[in-house]
């Protein structure tokens, strides 16, 4: 293990950023092409990385691409566009809703007809409708809730399942806009000065942009013949055994969560609360929003977990945790749990891959309380311990930041530009490409 560790450390130290992986020239219209910006999602990767990895490692024929941290479905959308079957998992039900919507191209005429029907349903919607969770009253004002109730009522009248989900995705995206949530904040923060928009106007505006994007997605897939290429997304905890047989996946492309950075459960609480209030249609969501603390605990990298035990299968991880113990013990526990969870996911990734199949993990290094958290090196080490063999370690510069590049020096959490104790993070990230031997 010692020699292996030294080799990995040295290899990463000597890596130079590769220009062809920076996608410096990819503008917003390219990074948000097709269905890619149906719904905001933190820390999603740009589709260009996924596309290049698929082209490099699944160049011909129909292959099966998997993303165990599927998020809002970037991998699955790109796989479908390139004619590959795909399967994704994420613990977050909002991720499942978004991904299923983004990978389902709908006949443009069907959407247009249903938009008209929706407007009629909306006009005839009764005014007082639902009993909401009290947190809804914390986030929304009374008149907004009434308007949202009408929109929601009208959406649920739509009979076609895929179309209804398409409208629900737009609705879910619109919740943050209409709430008192500070738009730029990734933490649940009230913006006292926020001028609240008209919910119907913002909903329709976003819906119409999705309708336009669907049109291109649909016609592209019809032309290429990939319209029926399956893309399946499941809500699952990827630290547990995934519902896939051993050795069936050709290519894994994934970007794991980071430790103590985004609290995905908190971030999507508006959608969770809203849909969770409707147990008849969203039985599981109801369960999550009522048992929110337990639900949140299962997200990898959250800071609310009890200490787990086990071997990291990584000397680098052990060193990081030992260093953190000297600085802040609870943080060391969070990071230790994170590495233990990631070890389980890498083992599962190895199991589901075919022999010769590649796993591409896109990951950046961070720093917490002055200790460098070498996620990429740990991933390489843990993957090697799981049985993988190195194919390529790629260092890429991140020129277009999708997220704030600033972290608070003290807490390591994302912060605003005007925070005096900020440090710049995520200038680079790595693609750890390994093969199942
Ligand atoms: C960096 S994001 C992935 C974003 C994705 N690459 C995209 O483009 O949308 C990490 C994802 O891991 C998910 N996640 C966290 N813990 C998980 C777990 N135990 N099992 C499965 N997914 C988990 C989060 O919900 C989040 O969507």
UniProtKB/TrEMBL annotation:
One of its GO terms (biological process) is DNA restriction-modification system. The lineage of its organism: Bacteria, Candidatus Portnoyibacteriota. The keyword Cytoplasm does not apply. Belongs to the N(4)/N(6)-methyltransferase family. N(4) subfamily. Pfam families: N6_N4_Mtase (PF01555). Keywords: DNA-binding, Methyltransferase, Restriction system, S-adenosyl-L-methionine, Transferase. It catalyses: a 2'-deoxycytidine in DNA + S-adenosyl-L-methionine = an N(4)-methyl-2'-deoxycytidine in DNA + S-adenosyl-L-homocysteine + H(+). SUPFAM superfamilies: S-adenosyl-L-methionine-dependent methyltransferases. Its EC number is 2.1.1.113. This is site-specific DNA-methyltransferase (cytosine-N(4)-specific). It comes from Candidatus Portnoybacteria bacterium RIFCSPLOWO2_01_FULL_43_11. Residues 33-96 form the DNA methylase N-4/N-6 domain. InterPro entries: DNA_methylase_N4/N6, MeTrfase_CN4_CS, SAM-dependent_MTases_sf. GO terms for molecular function: DNA binding; N-methyltransferase activity; site-specific DNA-methyltransferase (cytosine-N4-specific) activity.
């Amino acid at each position: 293990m010692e020699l292996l560790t030294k080799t990995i450390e040295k290899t990463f130290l000597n890596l130079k950023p590769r220009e062809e992986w920076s996608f410096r020239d990819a503008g917003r219209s390219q990074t948000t092409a097709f269905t890619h910006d149906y719904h905001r999602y933190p820390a999603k990767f740009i589709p260009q990385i996924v596309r290049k990895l698929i082209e490099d490692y699944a160049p011909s024929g129909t292959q099966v691409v998997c993303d165990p941290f599927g998020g809002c479905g970037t991998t699955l959308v790109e796989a479908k566009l390139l004619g590959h079957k795909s399967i994704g998992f994420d613990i977050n039900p909002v991720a499942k809703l978004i991904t299923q919507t983004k990978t389902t191209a709908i006949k443009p005429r069907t959407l247009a007809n249903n938009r008209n029907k929706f407007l009629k349903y909306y006009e005839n919607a009764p005014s007082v409708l639902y009993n909401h969770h009290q947190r809804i009253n914390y986030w929304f004002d009374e008149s907004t809730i009434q308007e949202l109730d009408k929109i929601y009522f009208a959406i649920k009248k739509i009979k076609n399942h895929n179309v209804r989900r398409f409208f629900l995705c737009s609705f879910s995206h619109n919740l943050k806009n209409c709430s008192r949530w500070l738009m730029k904040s990734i933490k649940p923060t009230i913006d006292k000065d926020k001028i609240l928009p008209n919910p119907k106007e913002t909903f329709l505006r976003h819906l119409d942009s999705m309708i336009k994007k669907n049109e291109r997605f649909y016609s592209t897939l019809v032309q290429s013949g990939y319209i029926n290429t399956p893309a399946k997304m499941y809500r699952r905890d990827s630290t547990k055994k995934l519902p896939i047989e051993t050795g069936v996946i050709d290519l894994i492309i994934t970007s794991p969560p980071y430790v103590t950075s985004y609290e995905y459960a908190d971030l999507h609480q508006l959608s969770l609360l809203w849909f969770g209030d409707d147990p008849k249609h969203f039985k599981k969501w109801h369960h999550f929003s009522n048992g929110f603390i337990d639900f949140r605990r299962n997200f990898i990298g959250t800071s609310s977990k009890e200490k787990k035990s086990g071997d990291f299968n990584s000397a680098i991880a052990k060193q990081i945790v030992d260093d953190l113990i000297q600085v802040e013990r609870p943080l060391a526990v969070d990071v230790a749990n994170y590495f233990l969870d990631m070890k389980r996911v890498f083992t599962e990734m190895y199991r589901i891959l075919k022999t010769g199949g590649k796993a591409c993990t896109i990951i950046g290094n961070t720093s917490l309380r002055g200790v460098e958290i070498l996620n990429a090196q740990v991933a390489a080490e843990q993957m090697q311990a799981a049985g993988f063999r190195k194919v390529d370690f790629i260092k890429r510069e991140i020129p277009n930041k999708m997220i704030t590049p600033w972290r608070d020096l003290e807490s390591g959490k994302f912060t605003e530009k005007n925070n005096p104790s900020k440090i710049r993070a995520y200038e680079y990230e790595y693609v750890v490409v390994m093969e199942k031997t």
